[in-house]
Amino acid sequence: MKSSKRDKTEGKFHQMKGKLKEVAGDLTDNPKLEAEGMGEKIVGKAQEKRGHVKKVFGK
What pTM was computed for the model? Predict the structure, then answer.
């Protein structure tokens, strides 16, 4: 798998995992888990963007 495609796929995975943690933290009234989920979503978005950039520049 090309590194750009891998970054995009892993980025989406981190975003979904982060959203699940965020919702679980909200439902269980756990602000630490909710914040961890938000952070993971941000990391996932950044990784997905990195995949887009790699694709544009052909790396």
Answer: 0.85
d(CA 55, CA 46): 14
| Sign of the Cα pseudo-torsion (30, 35, 40, 42, in order) | positive
- Residue listed under structure tokens 């989406």: 12
3-class SS of residue 54: helix
Contact 54, 3 (CB under 8 A): yes
In 3D, which of 58, 54, 57, 15 has the Cα closest to residue 37? 15
Sequence ranges of the domains in the chain: 3-57
Residue 30 in this model has a pLDDT that exceeds 70: yes
